[in-house]
Amino acid sequence: MKSALLNIQNRLNILSPGLIVVGTIAAAAGFLSLHYKAPVMLFALLIGIAFNFLSSDERCAPGIEFSSKKILRFGVALLGFRVTLDQILGLGTNALLFVPILVLSSIGVSWLIARLMGRRHLFALLTACAVAICGAAAALAVASVFPNWKDRHRDTLFVVVCVTSLSTIAMIIYPILFSMAEFSEVEIGILIGSTIHDVAQVVGAGYAVSNETGDIATFIKLLRISMLPIIVIVIAILLKRGDATSNISPKAFPWFALAFAMCLVINSSGFIPSILSEFLAGVSQWSLVFAIAGLGVTTSLKSMMELGGKSIALLVLQTLALLAIAVLAVSTELI
Question: Which member of 66, 114, 218, 303 lies 3.0 to 4.6 Å from 124 by CB, making a disulfide possible if both were Cys?
Answer without folding.
Answer: 114
